[in-house]
Design a protein that fits this description.
The chain is of the alpha/beta class and 362 residues long.
């Protein structure tokens, strides 16, 4: 296992078994660059961007570090518009817009493309050739996977169960990001309408590491070196941390988000579809509360529902209210620490060394 882990880290071009999660809207290019410069794997999420914007993000991260970069894309099925459902969703929140002195959107739209339908994004990735590309919400078409692999790019795929892991392995990805139910942000489920077994990170890691052929990266609820060491001992080759980086200096999280992370809300994260249309774990706020008694059939498709969530958040921020954002956070949120990225990587490394006595490096 030691040799497999070291070989995998060498393939990624990193020294430490730490991956900073590609959190859209939170993980800045500066954050990714600093993580990579420290010997771990820095990540940016470009699923909500255009090819032009994504290229600029990659360039910015590379200004901080010439080392490995992970670029994450969203592979959800393109949304199917449902005007009646979308108008009903707008009407449901119209009173909140009125209270905030704002006008609700007249209609909702698919605010960004899936990688499945974005050939310009593929072309950009083939030109830029980041060391790693990761997939969330599923897998791209076989020809896109083949093109990325031909370019020498290492491919990671988020999976939440054994069936998804087997599909990813058959598709030719190089490693699995085993996302437990406790993870913050969007569930990586291939089909959000399918039953969710809600496997925890450690159980999922053991299942995949025990019976699969691909390296497994643990993701969900891991906040410190002890958590990383536990994941490695259970068979993971690395651990992906997201919530642990939200309070870092280089994070794009605003002050309200940071304050909520260090409040009692961190003890009560909730899985909700109300913000974006797909299941995602968040700190509780007005929007998650409003969605608690809403049936899934009432919520527009992802990311169409997100169009309203973002409009409501903007209206609230204009009035200095902060209860309508998307404060993604995992169940390990109470363990969050505020410091620069480089300092956090040092702390995590020291904590791992205490638990492993240096073993994990080799």
């Amino acid at each position: 296992m030691k040799f497999t882990r070291r070989r995998f880290l060498d393939r990624l071009g990193i020294d430490l078994p730490i991956i900073q999660a590609p959190m859209a809207g939170i993980a800045s290019p500066a954050m990714a660059g600093e993580v990579s410069a420290a010997g771990a794997l820095g990540s940016i999420a470009i699923g909500a961007s255009t090819a032009v914007g994504a290229r600029a993000m990659i360039a910015s991260a590379r200004e901080r570090s010439s080392r490995t970069l992970n670029v994450n894309v969203f592979c959800h099925r393109p949304a199917r518009a449902d005007p009646a459902r979308e108008q009903a969703w707008i009407a449901r929140f119209a009173p909140e817009f009125t209270r905030l002195g704002a006008t609700p959107p007249a209609a909702l739209s698919e605010i960004y493309k899936s990688f499945l339908a974005d050939d310009a994004m593929l072309a950009m990735l083939l030109e830029e050739r980041p060391r790693v590309v990761s997939f969330h919400f599923g897998l791209p078409q076989p020809e896109k996977i083949a093109a990325l692999k031909s370019a020498g790019i290492v491919l990671l795929a988020t999976v939440t169960n054994l069936a998804e892991a087997r599909a990813a392995e058959a598709a030719g990805v190089d490693a699995l990001v085993a996302q437990g139910y406790e993870a913050g942000g969007h569930r990586g489920s291939f089909d959000p309408a399918a039953p969710d077994d809600r496997l925890g990170t450690m159980a999922l890691v053991r299942i995949l590491a025990n019976g699969g052929k691909l390296p497994v990266i643990a993701a969900g609820g891991i906040m410190d070196g002890a958590g990383i060491s536990a994941a490695l001992k259970l068979g993971a080759v690395a651990a992906q941390l997201g919530t642990a980086f939200i309070a870092c200096d280089e994070s794009l999280a605003d002050e309200a988000y940071r304050s909520a992370l260090f409040s009692d809300a961190a003890n009560h994260t909730i899985m909700t579809r109300a913000i974006s249309g797909r299941p995602a774990r968040s700190l509780p706020n007005h929007l998650t509360a409003a969605g608690q008694n809403v049936s899934e059939s009432e919520i527009p498709a992802y990311p169409i529902a997100y169009d309203l969530g973002k409009a409501l958040h903007a209206a609230a921020k204009a009035r200095a209210e902060h209860g309508f954002g998307a404060p993604w956070a995992g169940q390990g949120a109470p363990l969050a620490r505020a410091m620069p990225v480089a300092a956090l990587i040092r702390v995590l490394t020291n904590e791992m060394a205490e638990g492993w006595e240096g073993f994990f490096f080799f």
